[in-house]
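Task 17 of the worksheet. Students: predict the tertiary structure of the chain below and write it out as structure tokens. Keep your answer in the requested format; marks are given for formatting as well as content.
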Amino acid sequence: MTRVAIIGGGIGGLTAANALSRAGIEVAVYEAAAALKEIGAGVALHPNAMKVLRAIGVEDNVRKVAGRSQWQVMRNWKTGRVIGKTSRQRQAASFGTEGATVHRADLLEVLADALPAGIVTLGKRCTQVQPEGDVAVARFADGGEIEADVVIGADGIHSAVRASLFGLDAPRFTGKICYRSVVRARAVGGAQPSIEGSQWFGPHGTIVLYPMRGEELINVVCHYDDASYPHESWIAECGREEVLERYTGWHESLLRLFAAADTWYKWALYDRDPIPRWTRGRVTVLGDAAHPMLPYLGQGACQAIEDGAVLATALSVEAADPVAGLARYERTRRPRASRVVLAARERGLSNHLPSRWAAWRRDLLIAWRRRVNRRDPEGRGTAWLADYDASSPDVLAV
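Model answer:
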């Protein structure tokens, strides 16, 4: 039986572990942290991700902790004018299931609880991975090492596994920053906020809101063009006053929501070109370790989830030859993930148009697409994302 070691116990790593375990493949996960946890923030799971979560048997439990929202709405930054509005029902009719929005910690807990006992080892920070003949070796900061038939780097955007294989990357600062917070709906002053998934498009910025844990929490993500803050850390805090000042003039309901947030995080967005290879010998990468992307399509976690499903299928189909299985995984996933990376880059430009005339043309194009193409309910030309079913063996490249 093929022995697979996964470096990283985040969303991608635990999805892959579940998919591999269900396929009858021996798997172990090594996580650097002392506990399985995520920064306090949300994640949007689009239909392509939910199909995989259904296939690995966790969809129902994910939906139990998901936000309750009937609509996905695009709005004007200042007036609140609706640019486009799509029901969850229409989304399900178009793509076979509807998306969900969840707290990252809740999703991680669901994925961890679905695994057989003893699969995850905590406190194991990987420093190096090396293909060595018929095995791959992972070495850890505590001096230990393990051997496996296959090692998977699911260790995030600053992946030690990717660096071991291909060297350090050279990210490019985009001149865009991001603020993030989680707000209790009851804490918002004045009229209660509308509990819906929404994107607000404005000059030089986008705001994304969606509910989590029913209607208890609202995830808030605010993007803005600002070349003066080049720090990439996810855990740097900033003051509420900075956020309120930054979005002065935006819709009053947004400012009331921001004022109710206790803690804000701020980080710079860096862009990375798609890498030409994911695999060397018996070692490969998935998720942000393979294809870090800008957040404008909400596909970072979704693509990691797709990776895990395809990896398990490829190793199952090529059970006698894990190296062939990894090659097939990469042939299947790298073209699609690279396309998503580039599409997210373009979406960031489209969302932040500084010219009101350019924004007006964008909004008209959204309305036209929604009218003429029933398979594109959002109207932004990306139905190919939600339509994909990574859990199907039919997606495997030859």
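Marker's comment: The radius of gyration is 21 Å. Residues 36 and 109 are 8 Å apart (CA to CA).
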